[in-house]
Each structure stands twice: as structure tokens, then as C-alpha cells.
Amino acid sequence: MGWDAELELRCFDGTSWVVKRDDKDRDTVVLIDGTQWADGRIERSISVDDDLTVEQARQLAAALTAAADEADQMNSYDRIEATQ
Taking Cα atoms as reference points, which of 13, 24, 76, 75 lies closest to residue 46? Predict the structure, then answer.
């Protein structure tokens, strides 16, 4: 999604990971997405869209770890650090 001048923000989708599901008609997806505001602040989130078996949960854990690592890495590229 592009820049929304009226709201002064842009929403974006980052990398996604798929956990294959043989027991359902769709796979589980782990996705990094976020929002960037006009002042440069960026907020990222990691979302998961399903319930899982034990083996699928293990696959999900690996995908979540990869997503968290990538989100941390992307945060280091941001030009403005959010203050707490």
C-alpha cells in the first residue's frame, strides 16, 4: 500500500512465511506488516492467522523467530528511534 496523504501514513506488508496445512483447506501465514507515519516513525507487527497441531506449532515457532529477527534488523535501519 502506498502513502496516504490525508492520513499522513503508509501501511506496508513485509516478508511472510507459510506453514503448510494438510488438515485444512488453507495454510497458516506468518506476516510482518506495519505503518509508517509522516514524522518517520515506523511500527511493525507480526501476525499469525490460525490454530495449529504440535508439529505445525514447531514450524510456526521457527517462522515467528525468523520474523522477529527480521523485524529487529529492519528496526535498526529506521532513521528515527521511537522514544519510550
Answer: 13
The Cα–Cα gap between 8 and 14 comes to 20
Is residue 10 within a helix (H) or strand (E), and if so which, with residue range? strand 9-19
User: Whole-model pTM above 0.70?
Assistant: no
Confidence of residue 24 (pLDDT cuts 50, 70, 90): confident
Residue 66 is predicted with a pLDDT of 92
Between the alpha carbon of residue 44 and those of residues 22, 40, 51, 66, 71, the distances in Å are 30, 13, 22, 14, 7
Domain ranges of the chain: 3-77
Signed CA dihedral, 4, 7, 8, 14: sign only: negative
Taking alpha carbons only, the member of 58, 52, 47, 49 closest to residue 15 is: 47
Residue 21 has pLDDT above 90, yes or no: no
